[in-house]
Specification:
Strand content: 25-35%
Largest sheet: 3 strands, antiparallel
Distance between the termini: 69 Å
Number of helices: 2
Number of strands: 3
Order of helices and strands: HEEEH
Strand order of the largest sheet: 1-2-3
Shape: elongated
Oligomer: single chain
Radius of gyration: 21 Å
Length: 73
């Protein structure tokens, strides 16, 4: 019973700051995004993003030979 009260008062305790999600994951943007290296977006190549230090960062994989050949036909 005492643990229930402690859990209830824990709801009002200060919360820890949000941690950065530094894991890159695939992203399919609708609008153009700015890449971290400042390069222009490639028509093909997967875009990746992560939330780091309070903002989203984007990077793009280079186009592979298979991707280039697939676009030709």
């Amino acid at each position: 019973m005492t643990q229930d009260y402690l859990a209830f008062f824990g709801l009002f305790a200060p919360r820890a700051a949000a941690t950065d999600v530094t894991v890159w994951h695939k992203h399919n943007p609708i609008l153009p995004v700015r890449l971290t290296d400042g390069a222009s977006l490639n028509p093909s190549g997967q875009i990746w993003r992560r939330f780091h230090l309070g903002e989203w960062e984007y990077k793009q994989d280079p186009e592979t030979l298979d991707d280039y050949e697939a676009r030709q036909f």
